[in-house]
Amino acid sequence: MDLEHKFCRFGEAVTVLEGTKIEGYASHFGAADQGNDIVGRGAYARSLKRLAEEGRAVKMLWQHDPALPIGVWDEVREDARGLYVRGRILDTVEKGREAAALIAAGAIDGLSIGYRTVKATKNDRGQRLLEELELWEVSLVTFPMLPSARVAAKRDTLAAPDLCQLADALEDMRRNLAGG
Which domain holds residue 91? Predict the structure, then answer.
């Protein structure tokens, strides 16, 4: 059972809320990454459901090191756009304090997903289409694989959702009303 990793970027102007809170997208559906893989809509659904049923959570790690958890993901879900994550970097953990400082300084701006491929196919362009993934962790990393996926920290947790989140919510509602 091989664990794979995919990388994403933080947003352009990243700040750390209260030194710890971050949110955004760890994966975008339909976007080819630098490894020529494309994650399909619904690829994480079974894994997220199983984790919830078992009372387990996706881990937040530093640079994919299982010995260095640096926080918790309070929310991990799929929507019309991709895999949304919201969590807290723990300032009670040394690497968490370091990660928060590096993010605030703009030195670290990436996310990477750690997963096991359950089901994948190849298309006629030689790209691997990831249809089902077992998600294990989302790490803060130096070098992201999927530049189009971005995470942005919020200054105010009570602030209105950004326009991308609002557009995603409207798209989800439209699809639900259309029956698919």
Answer: 4-178
